[in-house]
Specification:
This protein is an alpha+beta fold. It has 2 domains: about 110 residues, Aminotransferase class 4, branched-chain amino acid transferase, N-terminal domain (D-amino Acid Aminotransferase, Chain A, domain 1); about 160 residues, D-amino Acid Aminotransferase, Chain A, domain 2, CATH 3.20.10. The strands form 2 sheets. Strands 8, 9, 10, 11, 12, 13, 14, 15 and 16 form a 9-stranded mixed β-sheet that branches. Strands 1, 2, 3, 4, 5, 6 and 7 form a 7-stranded antiparallel β-sheet that branches. Helix 5 links the parallel strand 8 and strand 9. The longest helix has 14 residues. The relative contact order is 0.13.
Amino acid sequence: MAATPPFDDRDGFIWYDGRLVPWRDAKLHVLTHALHYASCVFEGERVYGGKVFHLDEHNARLINSAKILGFEVPASMDDLAKATEEVVAANHIVDGYVRPVCWRGAEQMGVSAQAAKIHLALATWEWPAYFSPEARAKGIRMCWAPWARPAPNTAPVHAKAAGLYMICTLSKHDAEAKGFDDGLMLDWRGQLAEATGANIFLVINGELHTPTPDCFLNGITRQTVIGLARKRGIKVVERAIWPQELAQAQEVFLTGSAAEVTPVGEITGAHGNYRFTPSTVCRLMWEDFDRLVGKKPVASAA
């Protein structure tokens, strides 16, 4: 399998502060405020058939995330939509990923950076499956993450902010070092929260149970899957869920822009060892989601 080229050495174009620039020219200074103080927000968007799925929802969340961090995205909703269309077309992306990112620049260095310029860039690239088809069919292997999602009064938990992902990277690296696909994070109370980049659902006696997103993002794919389930007449319960309740679940799956709908086969570690067999509900949810976004059917897990 060919090595993935580094992201600073690729062909193509990046939309940067109002115009398309050659990929390798989209640079920033080492003293950029966002690099030191995490004054940065972003989105992760999937492209299906040349169009971004739920683009308006992603752009609205980007704008809201910036407001939570105390600055404004230097573009309107219409501007963001046009920039997205432009960068996707320029890079000939049919099925891929878009990364809008907005950050404070290098005009001021220190905790306070009121004078720093706000920058906006959009990059896009081809995106393979986040987990392999084999892992999706059997269910991915997860361990318990060593880090917890913070309390709402300790961090801007409802912003898709760069700094909040540090513990996700640490937890993902920990899982991979142990031979797992991902880590499952608890929150500061010890309740189920999310994976390192995806929300979680439990199938309990034909119902979907999912943690209330009060200290992590209410994912756009999460909301989509809740809607799909309700269309099928499947009851969806959003509530506090304790780790030991996994023993009641027949199936478990993750949702996210990257993960899409991915079944879980195992959760192992300090908070209990649990195994699941992807079956009817997992299959229905990923088939409904794939149909919605126009993907070709894949082999079922049942």
